[in-house]
Description:
Blueprint: E1 9-12, H1 18-29, E2 33-38, H2 41-53, E3 58-62, H3 68-82, E4 87-90, H4 106-134, E5 137-142, H5 155-175, E6 180-187, H6 193-206, H7 215-226, H8 237-248, E7 259-262
Parallel strand pairs: 1-2, 1-4, 2-3, 4-5, 5-6, 6-7
Amino acid sequence: MDLLLAGKGALVSGSSIGIGETIARVLADEGVAVAIHGRDADRAQRVATSIAEQGGYAVVVTGDLTDEAATRRIVADSERLLGGVDILINNAGGSGEKHVWEETPVEAWISAFDRNVVAAVRLTNLLLPKMRTAGWGRIVNISSLAGSLPPATGPDYSACKAAMNNLTKSLSKAAAGDGITVNAISPGTILTPKLEAAFRAMAADKGWAAADAPWGEIERAVLPHVFDVPTGRVGLPEDIARAVAFLCSPHAGYITGVDLPIDGGAMPAL
């Protein structure tokens, strides 16, 4: 299916590594000109160069999204280099160190909300008026299952993702009349270097598999002990990125205000 995205411009925050990088690559494969964002210029340039080598178009914008002036510069540079931003993917953020409830300092809550929620609001507030004027736009917020199924630890991060889900629904109603859709995606257990390292260490520690065993063996040995995933596998960054690309497409113009779990069926039925 042609997603009809060729010629669009997208800013993907936190796209110099991980899920954000994969989202940027998949959008570029669909003909979208992408702005690769991160705080490490060399890492962002590596991604942009790789996309260009595959026939796509990518530019680099760097800066700290918890800084108002830096965020304005990131948006201005993206618009200038891409010729406009039609698509915003709010992916930047992160969980940081997980604490038990009473040991999570107030400073951790403030920092978590700034980088996970307020950063997305800063970007959205700068780009939304121009999307309204154009009569078309796509905003996809990368949330987490923790927003709906919070664990006992890391309450600051879970609360951030709950806030992200809430603002997604609010904004979707506010912007729908202007041809703008706003959706969230809540990844479940996704294969990242950090998760793979944790699985390998656990397999070796518990004697379930050798730390250097093939990934498939590690996955089969560890997953049933730590996460209840009916499909029996860890998700891939591509699973997230392909869903993002579809939600950005004109084909998805009647889908808005959705929080889409991509979790292999882990979300329990209500």
